[in-house]
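DM from R.C. (forwarded with permission)

"hey, sorry to bug you on a friday — could you get me a structure for this? deadline for the figure draft is monday and I only need the backbone to look sensible"
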Amino acid sequence: MNLSPSSEASPTDHTRWFTDEVHPHDAQLKAYLRGSFPAVRDVDDIAQESYLRVWKARAVHPIQSAKAFLFQVARNLALNLVERERASPVQAIGDLVALPVLNDEPDAASTVGRNEKLRLLVDALVELPPRCREITVLRKLEGVPQREVARRLRISERTVEEQVSRGVKRCEAYLRSHGVQSCYDT
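My reply, with the result:
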């Protein structure tokens, strides 16, 4: 199977690549994270962020070994998290009365809903034409400034603006057609 992104590859090829080459390592990845980084409390969050970063990276350049790249990304994320927590293990709380009594973390249904919306967003991005997807990912997911996108891709800023607008509209339409009214609601 060709692991490099191609302007000729169909959106289903990208989804198939992710499904065949990346996602099958989910259980092994989580077991690795739990065993190697016992201080990491939410292994699922590290795994999800790793998947997103692998998806974004593949949109920009080829990935020779999906498993190796996935594990390296997850390892780096876990190391960064452990380092941040080590640097500031205790959070200072000024006013104890202001603390919420109830847990504000999302429940299981909210988490499942959020994950489903994320999957649908990935599917919507896959459906975009390759150039539109590349520009939309750079601007909206990676936060690259419009001028920088134009410079990198050797196109006008106006073209970047138009492609991002088209990409966002198509993604919104795709999400609406799959029952998602707002990405902000849980």
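R.C.: lifesaver. The chain has two domains: 1-91, 108-186.
me: no worries. The longest helix spans residues 66-87.
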